[in-house]
Amino acid sequence: MDASVLEKLEGRIASLERRVKGDLADQDQSLVERLTIIDRKINSAIQDEDNLGILKRTDALHTLLDPSLEHNIGVDSCTKLALVEANMDRIEEAKQLLEQMESSRKVLESAHIKTVPTYSGKLASLSEAQAEQVTQAEALTRQTMNMFETYNRMMSDIDRKFAVWDQRLAAAEEMLKAKEGAA
């Protein structure tokens, strides 16, 4: 072969390797070398007589995993009935949900529900108004709590002052009684 043809082939192989392996694969081993190693391993596995039994079991496994096998193997009516009875609560629940959905279909298909998107602007303004009102209510709650605290402090101070004045008045009354009794 011509050297330029070999270079073109090597370039195409290198391009294919870059596409298959990408940037993440190691650059030490080419794709062709790796495929050759895999081919040798497969051939040696097939040639080994012990592995032939495993390969036969693999074929059996493939037939068991085939989805069409369910249709080929007939399930008797007793088994089907047992499956239905075992899942009866799920079936009943699904039936009730379907009936509920069917009964509410008229409401869901009504003109009122279909016009809901036209009210999105009004809903947005109402949501903003509600958020402002919640903020105002929280501020009023804080103000009210502060007023109650102030009221409680004032009442406590007045209560203490009345107690002091009551003691002074009682002491003055005793002094008057003592003076009148002495006179």
UniProtKB/TrEMBL annotation:
Entry coiled-coil feature ranges: 81-111
Which Pfam family, an example, fits this chain?
Answer: Dynactin_p22
Query: Per its UniProt record, what InterPro entries does this chain match?
Result: DCTN3 (IPR009991)
Name the keywords, alphabetized. Answer: Coiled coil
Q: Name one GO cellular component term.
A: dynactin complex
Per the record, the domain of life is: Eukaryota
Identification of the protein by name: Dynactin subunit 3-like
Protein's gene: LOC100898455
